[in-house]
Design a protein that fits this description.
Blueprint lengths: L2 H7 L3 H18 L1 H7 L26 E5 L2 E4 L4 E4 L14 H11 L10 H14 L3 E5 L2 H16 L3 E5 L12 E4 L2 E4 L14 E4 L4 H8 L4 E6 L15 H11 L3 E5 L10 H5 L6 E4 L10 E5 L1 H13 L15 H14 L2 H24 L5 E5 L2 E5 L8 H7 L2 H13 L2 E2 L6 E3 L6 H19 L1
Parallel strand pairs: 3-15, 5-8, 5-9, 9-10, 10-11
Antiparallel strand pairs: 1-2, 2-3, 4-12, 6-7, 11-12, 13-14, 14-16
C-alpha cells in the first residue's frame, strides 16, 4: 500500500502489516488442530483442498469446521464463530434449518435422484411462480448452469449472437461474462486459466449505471440479452442510481434485447428478491445458492412471452440434444429441500427480521467509521451489508475495483475471526439470516470498532 493508498483508505501501510502479522499469529495459536490438518495441505487434493477457493480465505490456513447450526460455526479446535458469511450466501437462511433438515431426512428414505418428477416438484412449480412472478421455470444444479441455459434461450429466440454485461460483474463460470474494461476497452478478464477464446467477440461490456453507454452498445442490435445483478455485489457493492433500472428496461425493450436478472446474491433484498421489491420486469430470472438451503440447486424462469417464443423455436429447430440440462438437475433431493425453503423459510416474517438486524448492523458499522474519521462507507441491500474501505459512492465496477484495499481488508478479516466473527472471504460482505440474533450483530460491531481503534491509534 502506497502513500496514495493511505490517503484513500486512511490507515498507515506499516501499521496494517504489523497488525496483520500479530493477528495471524493469534489465529495460529487458537487453531492448532486446523493447522495440523490443513496447514501444509490435505493429502489427496491438488493444492491441499478439494476446491481451490478454500485457499482464498485471507487467514494463514483455512478453518477446519466441525459443525454449524443456525448462525454459528464451530471448528475442530472448539472455537465458536458468529457466521455472517453463510457459505457466501449458500446458507442464507441459516445452517441446517429445521425444515430443510427434515425434508432431506424424509427424501433420503425415498431415493435421491431418478430423473422423474415427485409430488414436491408439483408444489415447487406453483411456489416459484407465486414467489418470483414468472410463469415458466426450469431447475439446474448451479447458478452458473442456470445462467448458461437462460442465455442459450435468449440467443435462440432473438437469433442474436452477443451478450451484454456490466464491468465488474460476476455470474459464476459463465464464459461470456469473463470480460472487463481496461482503459475503456474490452478485454478478457485477467487470470483465466487455460482459456484461448476472445470473449470480447461474443460479449459487449459497459459500466453499471451508464445508460448512455448501454444505449450505444444496444444500438448495434446484435445483443440477445443483458445479464446483470440488480446490485453489483461481487466487486464491492455498487447500488443502482435512481432511474437506472427503469432506463435499463426501457432500452432493452426498445432495441429488442432480453433482460436477465441474476438474483443469486440480491435475493437477500426481500421476499421475491430485489426484482419483487423494486418491481423489476425481467424476461429471464436466475437464482442459485440459497434456493435449496445449502443443497446444490438453482432455478431459472422465463416470462410468458419468452416461453412462447422458445416453444415456437423448439417446434421449428432441427431435432436433437439442445446442449442444455444435466443428469442430476431437478433431482428429488433438490426439490424436497427447495419446497422447504419456499414454503417455510422464504417468508415475510423472516425477511422482516433479517432487514431489521441488517439495518442495525449498518448503523453500528457506520457509527464506528465516523468515530474514527475513516474515509470508508457502508452499503446495504436488504440483509446484505458491506463495509467499503473507500469514500462513497461507488458508481460502477471500475470504481469498485479501484476501491479495493486487499492488504487492509485481509487484516480486518483475520482480526474479525480472532474476535469471533466470520465474514465472506472474497469481499467484505456480511449477511444476516433468520437465525442471526441481536447479540451476534452487536458483537460484530464491537469487534469492528476494536479493529478500527487499533488500526488508527
Amino acid at each position: 500500500m502506497t502513500a496514495d493508498d493511505q490517503a484513500r483508505h486512511g490507515v498507515d501501510p506499516d501499521r496494517i502489516a504489523e497488525f496483520r502479522a500479530r493477528e495471524a499469529e493469534r489465529y495460529r495459536l487458537a487453531r492448532r488442530k486446523s493447522e495440523t490438518a490443513i496447514g501444509s495441505g490435505i493429502p489427496g487434493y491438488f493444492g491441499g483442498v478439494p476446491m481451490h477457493w478454500m485457499r482464498d480465505w485471507p487467514m494463514p490456513f483455512p478453518i477446519v469446521v466441525d459443525k454449524a447450526k443456525g448462525a454459528v460455526i464451530v471448528d475442530v479446535d472448539d472455537n465458536r464463530l458468529d457466521d455472517f458469511c453463510f457459505g457466501d450466501t449458500g446458507s442464507m437462511f441459516g445452517h441446517s434449518p429445521l425444515p430443510v433438515s427434515k425434508a432431506i431426512r424424509r427424501q433420503a428414505k425415498r431415493g435421491l435422484t431418478y430423473m422423474l418428477p415427485t409430488e414436491d416438484t408439483i408444489v415447487v412449480g406453483k411456489l416459484l411462480e407465486k414467489t418470483f412472478g414468472l410463469p415458466s421455470w426450469q431447475v439446474a444444479t448451479t447458478a452458473t448452469d442456470a445462467n448458461r441455459f437462460a442465455l442459450r434461450v435468449a440467443r435462440a429466440v432473438t437469433n442474436r449472437p452477443k451478450i451484454l454485461v456490466f464491468n465488474g460483474c460476476y455470474h459464476g463460470a459463465v464464459e461470456e461474462t469473463f470480460v472487463r474494461l481496461k482503459d475503456g476497452k474490452p478485454i478478457n478478464r485477467p487470470g483465466l486459466a487455460g482459456e484461448f477464446r476472445d470473449y470480447t467477440e461474443t460479449a459487449r461490456i459497459v459500466e453499471f449505471n451508464d445508460l448512455s453507454a448501454l444505449e450505444h452498445e444496444l444500438a448495434y442490435r446484435d445483443v440477445a440479452c443483458v445479464i446483470t445483478e440488480p446490485v453489483l455485489t461481487n466487486s464491492l457493492m455498487v447500488l443502482p442510481e435512481p432511474g437506472f433500472h427503469g432506463g435499463l428496461r426501457e432500452l432493452t425493450r426498445r432495441y429488442g434485447t432480453l433482460l436477465l436478472i441474476d438474483e443469486t446474491h440480491t435475493v437477500s433484498s426481500g421476499l421475491g428478491g430485489y426484482t419483487a421489491k423494486r418491481e423489476l420486469e425481467p424476461d429471464l430470472f436466475v437464482l442459485g445458492k440459497p434456493i435449496a438451503g445449502g443443497v446444490p440447486a438453482a432455478v431459472w424462469g422465463m416470462s410468458n412471452e419468452v416461453a412462447l417464443r422458445y416453444t415456437a423455436y423448439n417446434e421449428k429447430k432441427e431435432p436433437g440434444y439442445s446442449g442444455m440440462g444435466t443428469t442430476l438437475s431437478a433431482n428429488a433431493l433438490q426439490l424436497a429441500a427447495m419446497r422447504a425453503v419456499l414454503e417455510q423459510l422464504m417468508t415475510p416474517d423472516n425477511y422482516d427480521q433479517m432487514e431489521r438486524l441488517a439495518a442495525r448492523l449498518e448503523r453500528g458499522l457506520s457509527r464506528t467509521i465516523a468515530r474514527y474519521l475513516l474515509p470508508w462507507h457502508v452499503a446495504r441491500a436488504g440483509a446484505r451489508v458491506e463495509f467499503i474501505c473507500a469514500p462513497p459512492p461507488l458508481r460502477n465496477g471500475g470504481e469498485a475495483e479501484a476501491a479495493h484495499a486487499p492488504e487492509l481488508e485481509a487484516a480486518i478479516h483475520v482480526a474479525l475471526v480472532n474476535r469471533g466473527a466470520l465474514i465472506s472471504p472474497f469481499h467484505n460482505m456480511m449477511l444476516v439470516s433468520p437465525a442471526t440474533e441481536k447479540p451476534q450483530v452487536d458483537r460484530l460491531v464491537a469487534a469492528f470498532g476494536d479493529i478500527a481503534q487499533r488500526l488508527t491509534a
